[in-house]
Write a structure and sequence with these properties.
Layout (H helix, E strand, L loop, with lengths): L9 H8 L5 H21 L5 H30 L15 H14 L7 H23 L2
Amino acid sequence: MSTHTVKSTHSVREVKKSTEVTVAEFLGIIFSFNSSLKLIHWDIQGKGSYAAHIALDQAADTLRHVTDRLVETTIAIKGDLDIVIPETKRPKDYISYIEGFYIVVDAKRELFPERFTQSIIDDYQEGIKQLLFRLKRLQ
């Protein structure tokens, strides 16, 4: 796992503390991350806030759909999962938080060994990178 330090919410720290995260736990953490984007979306203000507001809304929608595909495909492969969603918090430094979560997803992609589930993870990471592009460059 990367040594990149992330000052963020509970879910990212939880993943970084343990290399022994189950698929079900990780899916809950992904859901929590998606929800945190909506919290950031509702709280965004200041210069460039409209562009960030729209970018966060688009990303939340995209990542929700990709997450649904990943969860349903994983259930089809593994059977029923006990997915628990950790507490969702709104990070203060949301750019670092989003960058850090991209790294976490990359570090945990081995939980999804099939090529088609890897493809879904690729779509998820692409959604995060698109969000970062919009937040950093389209103010």
